[in-house]
Design goal:
Helix 1 packs across helix 12 and helix 6 crosses helix 7. It contains 12 helices and 7 strands. By secondary structure, it is of the alpha/beta class. It has a single domain, classed as 3-Layer(aba) Sandwich (Rossmann fold), CATH 3.40.50. The chain binds adenosine-5'-diphosphate and magnesium ion. The site of magnesium ion has 6 residues, from helix 1.
């Protein structure tokens, strides 16, 4: 099982869209995909029609039951979706209270990692949508994954957020056994605007070896797909945006790191 986390400390940069697109496209290839929502905004869960105020079991449950995590317990929280090979471990808005509750509690940083170990034979790929705040949820998301995808909007304000994210990463990598491989993914690129063109250049010059060499274009179909509650690759398989995520997935799979660093091991 591979675990990829999508994170950036800035909102609205395309995290959820990237998680749903990569997961959806991997599912299309026949991989058993689990989408794990760790964001209190719960947009990924809303995407799939979950009522995130009333959902009975969610990623919050993992933290509440962290001392009794077993395969049946974790599997019982996971929902199937209307889409083949795509399962969802939803979030709830109550996740927002976790940061306060986590203070001074032991063993809070590896909850997600341990939960995923319980279901490691059930899925080929897990994609975690992580919150924009650096806190216990993001720590969990970063500790559980083998790879990190950092979507960054191609505009100047977003570059500061990226800097902050990479700094956080360096800090967290020190407490891992191995450094965390990360890939910066330029998103919402609009070649007609100077801001997009020059910020893409800055991103490539600054994060040389960590940048996916292409970019995700601005594509209004993503918003339409999320409004319809359908993964982008099924909503409009030939759209420019989906084609771009297709090539990102291919690139990610080609440079996949070994299974040796599975979560919890
Ligand atoms: N490449 C894109 N082109 C146009 N709109 C996009 C693109 N990626 C995402 N969006 C839209 O931008 C908004 C924010 O994206 P989202 O993935 O929710 O970001 P985040 O999870 O980082 O907050 C959503 O309405 C989404 O549909
Ligand atoms: Mg989001």
């Amino acid at each position: 099982m591979q675990v990829w986390t999508v994170a950036n400390q800035k909102g609205g940069v395309g995290k959820t869209t990237t998680a749903v697109s990569l997961g959806g496209l991997a599912a299309e290839q026949g991989q058993r995909v689990l989408l794990l929502d760790l964001d209190p905004h719960a947009s990924m869960s809303t995407y799939f029609g979950v009522d995130t105020d009333t959902v009975a079991a969610s990623s919050f449950t993992l933290f509440q039951q962290r001392k009794e995590l077993t395969q049946p317990l974790v599997a019982g929280i996971i929902q199937s979706t209307a889409f083949e090979n795509i399962s969802l471990l939803p979030a709830t808005t109550a996740l927002a209270t976790l940061e306060r509750q986590a203070i001074g509690q032991d063993g809070m940083g590896l909850v997600v990692s341990r939960a995923l170990t319980c279901v490691r034979d059930d899925y080929d790929l897990v994609v975690i949508d992580s919150p924009p705040l650096l806190g216990v949820l993001m720590i969990n998301a970063l500790a559980a994954c083998q790879r990190l995808v950092v979507p960054v909007q191609t505009e100047f304000l977003a570059l500061k957020g990226l800097e902050r994210m990479v700094h956080t990463l360096a800090m967290i990598s020190r407490s891992r056994k191995e450094p965390l491989a990360y890939t910066v993914v330029p998103t919402m690129f609009d070649r007609r605007t100077q801001a997009s063109v020059s910020s893409l250049r800055v991103i490539r010059n600054t994060y040389v070896d960590h940048v996916w060499p292409s970019k995700i274009p601005v594509d209004t179909r993503f918003r339409d797909a999320s409004r319809a509650g359908v993964p982008p690759h099924l909503f409009d398989p030939k759209s420019r945006g989906v084609e771009a995520y297709r090539s990102l997935l291919k690139w990610m799979l080609k440079s996949q790191v070994g299974e040796g660093s599975a979560p919890g091991s």
